[in-house]
User: Which sequence fits this backbone?
């Protein structure tokens, strides 16, 4: 997974967790746990078992996906000659629309940052970058100084599967990064091998994903917004606001780093007020 598919540590951990769940089930049922002995009926029992544990349809589907990948690997390596997952049916999933923030909500969260602290300037630069570029949280914490091309108005980010892409960055985000680097970051001694990361903690190490989640969670509490907001919400909002503004779907796909345009199509949902306004303005019978 690491060498051939270039998957991240988080993805590998998730796949291993899926297989561990299957092993737990086989041990619980006292079945022979060797891959060669597992048949479709065992996997169907496993599905029933995880359903009875109260796992959501999404979690069940992800578990099955992980187990299918494992069996594909076994076939490729000639460890098995048949795949018991071929006829295994995953639960049907409805398309869930991602949570988004209005521009006013985003401004409220960013305005809640305490700029009197050194971390404040960094956090403002981070959130402006998240929203300006629609980055994943892992792409944000791994953003490097050597990948900032501000003269051209772009940054280079490394996404899933170690795929690199160029993303346009807005003037507000560039301004906040420049302020953070000139006034705060220059006074921090980076730890070894962390010299090139844009965003550092006070000890000079790059930020963790959990730290970014925590920063946003605290700001949301401060603003009093009654929404479940994560770094990914800024990415969803970035895409939705672009499409609402008339941006081309293929362009948004490129900026988000989606392999398939069907993933980007979920952002073509628009809020009801926007749809109603469009119908009133453009429909001949309105």
Assistant:
């Amino acid at each position: 997974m690491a060498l051939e598919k270039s998957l991240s540590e988080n993805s590998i951990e998730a796949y291993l967790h899926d297989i561990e769940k299957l092993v737990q089930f086989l041990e619980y049922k006292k079945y022979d746990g060797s891959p060669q002995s597992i048949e479709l009926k065992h996997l169907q029992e496993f599905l029933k078992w995880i359903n009875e544990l109260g796992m959501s349809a999404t979690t069940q589907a992800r578990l099955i996906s992980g187990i299918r990948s494992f069996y594909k690997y076994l076939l490729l390596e000639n460890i098995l000659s048949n795949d018991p997952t071929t006829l295994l049916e995953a639960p049907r999933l409805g398309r869930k629309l991602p949570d988004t923030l209005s521009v006013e909500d985003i401004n409220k969260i960013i305005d809640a940052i305490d700029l009197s602290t050194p971390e404040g300037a960094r956090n403002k630069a981070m959130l402006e970058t998240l929203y300006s570029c629609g980055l994943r949280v892992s792409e944000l914490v791994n953003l490097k100084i050597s990948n900032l091309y501000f003269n051209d108005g772009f940054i280079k980010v490394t996404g899933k599967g170690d795929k690199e892409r160029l993303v346009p960055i807005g003037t507000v985000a560039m301004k906040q990064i420049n302020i953070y680097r000139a006034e705060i970051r220059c006074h921090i001694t980076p730890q070894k091998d962390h010299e090139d990361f844009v965003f550092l903690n006070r000890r000079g190490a790059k930020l963790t994903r959990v730290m970014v989640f925590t920063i946003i969670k605290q700001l949301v509490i401060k603003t009093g917004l009654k929404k479940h907001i994560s770094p990914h919400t800024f990415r969803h909002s970035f895409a939705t606001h672009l499409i609402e503004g008339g941006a081309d779907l293929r362009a948004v796909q490129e900026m988000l780093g989606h392999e398939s345009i069907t993933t980007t199509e979920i952002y073509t949902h628009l809020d009801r007020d926007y749809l109603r306004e469009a119908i009133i303005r453009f429909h001949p019978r309105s």
Notes: The chain has twelve helices and three strands. The beta strands are 148-149, 154-158, 164-168. The mean pLDDT is 87.
